[in-house]
Amino acid sequence: MSDAGFGMGFGFGGVLASALEAFGPLCVGIDPHDFLLQDWGLPSSAAGAREFGLRVVDAAAGRAGIVKPQVAFFERFGSAGYSALEEVLAAARSKGLIVIADAKRGDIDTSLAGYVEGWLTPGSPIEADALTINPFQGVASLESAMEYAADNGKGLFVLAATSNPEAARVQGARVVGSASDQASRTDPLATATVSRAIIDDVSAFNAGRAEQGPIGSIGVVLGATVDFAALGIDMNSAHSPALPVLAPGFGHQGATATDVRRLFGALTPFTLVSESRSLLQAGPRGLAAAIDARAEEVRAALV
Q1: How far is Cα 81 from Cα 157, in angstroms, rounded to an integer?
Q2: Which H helix or E strand runs over 221?
Q3: Rounded to whole angstroms, how far apart are CA atoms 199 and 207?
Q4: In this entry, which stretches build a coiled coil (predicted)?
Q5: Where are the alpha helices (DSSP H) in 69-226?
Q6: Distance (Å, rounded) from C-alpha 92 to C-alpha 128?
Q7: Would you kindly state where each structural domain of the chain is located, as residue ranges?
Q8: pLDDT for 33-84, tens place per residue?
Q9: Cα–Cα–Cα angle for 210, 213, 219, nearest 5°?
Q10: Cβ atoms < 10 Å from Cβ of 106
């Protein structure tokens, strides 16, 4: 993917660029739902989740560059579930896969530090390369977490516009005195939506860490089924460094590979096409072929 060729060697953004260059933007979810465990002939237990996760890792390695374990499906089994997750995380990272832990953590800065240190400290039992994070207490409350991630060559993906319909009322609410308001008093969206303000704040953080390279360490989560225009989000606005995007909503939720450029505009080069259920339903025997086919489909759509 030629758009991703620059920026290699700079923190998490450089790692991400390398994976995009080698494999394209497909991100394979590791979601051991009960119905999938049953379909795969596995027990609904920590042992079943472990086996499921390891099989997905094996199928994704060499075919995709990024996997995203959904932490909740392991966490529900308590300490045994976390032990299973540790093995899946370690296996994925040992095979050269970028691992995004989909845990959606969020808290005041002191408590959040504990979460971030657990997930993003090199050598931690639950070490991942990036973590999804919830900004409900304000993006400013994430600042120390963002600094920690950037300092350790790790990434964060901040929830900004999620694809669940219940989110629209909150994420479409207006924020007075947002970064976008301060940037341009002539902006017709002088009071930006919550979603847009989060994007502005994350982009501003990345701009303040320009030494990280041309791709930011901190990205945002933008669901592929979201009406971005209704949220006042301009997908063709410039971000320097480039803004990574984790984009769920592909496959089972309805978005397709051919939608990527239309939906994400200028953000396309660093948009991760996240797909879970529609791939995982191929089963353990068909998963590798399904990943191969979808990865090629996504790459072809971006040529």
Answers
A1: 23
A2: strand 218-222
A3: 12
A4: none
A5: 72-75, 78-94, 109-120, 143-151, 168-171, 179-183, 194-208
A6: 9
A7: 2-301
A8: 999 999 999 999 999 999 999 999 999 999 999 999 999 999 999 999 999 9
A9: 80
A10: 20
Closest CA to 22 of 55, 65, 59: 65
Domain 2-301: CATH superfamily is Aldolase class I (3.20.20.70)
- Which secondary-structure segment (H or E) carries 50? helix 46-60
Position 163 pLDDT exceeds 90: no
> What is the pLDDT, as a whole number, of residue 292?
97
Catalytic positions: 104
pTM above 0.85, yes or no: yes
- Please tell me whether residue 132 adopts helix, strand or coil conformation: strand
Angle among Cα 97, 278, 301 to the nearest 5 degrees reads: 70
Which residue type, as a one-letter code, is found at position 238?
Answer: A
| Selection from 277, 273, 278 nearest residue 245 by Cα | 273
The yes-or-no verdict on residue 264 having pLDDT over 90 is: yes
Angle at alpha carbon of residue 58, lines to 55 and 64, rounded to 5°:
120
Percent of the chain with pLDDT over 90: 78
- Give CA torsion, residues 236, 19, 74, 224, to 10 deg: 20
Which tens digits make up the pLDDT trace of 215-244? Answer: 999 999 999 999 999 999 999 988 999 999
